[in-house]
# Entry
Amino acid sequence: MPASPSPSRIRLGINVDHVATLRNARGGTRPDPVRAALAAIAAGADGITAHLREDRRHINDEDMARLKAQISKPLNFEMAATQEMLDIALRTKPHAVCLVPEKRSERTTEGGLDVVAGHNHLVPYVSKLAEHGIRVSLFIEPSERAIEASAKLRVPVVELHTGAWCEAVLTQDRAGDAKGFDQLRLGARLAQSAGLEVHAGHGLDFDTARRLAAVPEFVEFNIGHFLMGEALFSGLAPVIREMRKVMDEGRGLT
Ligand code: PXP
# Structure
């Protein structure tokens, strides 16, 4: 996504996968993830994220093409590093691709990419996407090993997996909360000092987004499931505006 108006304002990417999950529960066309993306942008989203999974359990090929054609903000295409997905990404030409690990049996993206063991597999994907002007990010655990391995792959961006920390916060695991937050804080610092732009995502809610926003190295959050769930009760636009507000508060901008 392009630079934000203020250097310290965190960009908010909205993940619309679970609008498609709800649609696919019935088949047909409603609710439409593209409509959700347009509403999210109208409410202040800085970009839209969608994950085209191998099994097409939520977003499908047509959704991705429609998102690219219809949204006015950057599209962040999440995908596994497979030839099929690479071909689709090169046809779609999104602003960015976030490479994620993918197992059919998982309910959601359960861990970060294994960048160390996967180095040789990832090299051609990173270079092909970069050759086509697509900004590549790697979705990784906030560990020193993963960050150093990502820097070696010469990607411009890493997205640190916040799932384990968010789960610890949700289950009131104090030790897990403190440890997870520290890993994210130190990971963000290490990644930035290695020349990487640092994003975060997975499982973020108002509380965790506000807290993580205080870590100055983060420049973008990608958030979906919590917001779509809250939108059932409050509506999508108010929920996105509230997320914007808590992120700005966490960053000390209000
Ligand atoms: N970032 C990445 C790389 C993801 O895989 C996901 C989940 O699809 C998210 C962010 C958003 O996570 P959530 O839906 O839990 O907010």
